[in-house]
Write a structure and sequence with these properties.
Elements: H1 7-19, H2 33-45, E1 55-59, H3 63-82, H4 86-94, E2 105-112, H5 129-147, E3 151-155, H6 160-166, E4 173-182, H7 192-195
Antiparallel strand pairs: 1-2, 2-4, 3-4
Helix pairs in contact: 2-5
Length: about 210
């Protein structure tokens, strides 16, 4: 039956999800356009509320644009560090939280909150579902990239309003994620934050019943 997959594929899918990591340490080797295009195709396969497809992707390439984004991160990172004390502050200061200096591909992914596509279906009572749709699309892109051997680092320590201004996007576009994409220096199947002693992954999902 089409759409059913055997046990071997199911195991490989679990393996892919386990080895999908948030990468911060990249080699500077270029990513071939054909490889990146295969990964980006995942956006066209992603579900979206009302079939609105609200994702908008900007490839940040110029030295000027990248310098603005890096400065944005560095300010936000300094502010975040100031919010921690004692051991957490020490741990935070030692973390590498951005691959912006090394990643050859950098993408700013926005949600077009004013898109007419989909005619508002499913988003009138919960307009945030457009943003959720973009997150879902990023997840598919992330898995596609990992299947190609690429790593992705999602940078969230950033001022989204400032980034929208710096990249000169329409006012109804909301930043969802700034993604660093490239070949990882090393691979690991456990989160870097766990290896650094910041936090531990929960062993399993606890589903509440009501």
């Amino acid at each position: 039956m089409q759409g059913q997959y055997d046990k071997a594929f199911q195991a490989e899918l679990r393996d892919l999800m386990q080895w999908r990591r948030d990468v911060r340490r990249f080699r500077t080797d270029a990513v071939e356009a054909a490889v990146l295009d295969r990964c980006l195709y995942a956006f066209s396969l992603a579900p979206s509320v009302g079939l609105s497809e609200p994702w908008r992707v900007i490839s940040v390439e110029s030295p000027e644009a990248r310098a603005k984004v890096l400065a944005n991160f560095e300010r936000a990172n300094a502010d975040a560090l100031a919010g921690y004390t004692s051991e957490k502050a020490r741990l935070y200061a030692d973390l590498k939280l951005s691959g912006m200096r090394e990643a050859p591909v950098q993408l700013a992914v926005f949600s077009d909150d004013a898109t007419a596509k989909g005619a508002g279906l499913g988003a009138q009572s919960m307009p945030e579902t457009r943003a959720y749709s973009v997150v879902g699309a990023i997840t598919l892109f992330w898995l596609a990239a990992r299947a190609e051997g690429l790593g992705i680092g999602w940078v969230s320590i950033i001022d989204p309003v400032q980034m929208a201004q710096d990249l000169d996007v329409p006012r109804d576009w909301r930043l969802i994620g700034y993604l660093c994409v490239g070949w990882p220096e090393a691979e690991a199947n456990t989160p870097e934050l766990e290896r650094a002693g910041w936090e531990k992954r929960s062993p399993a999902l606890c589903v509440e019943r009501r």
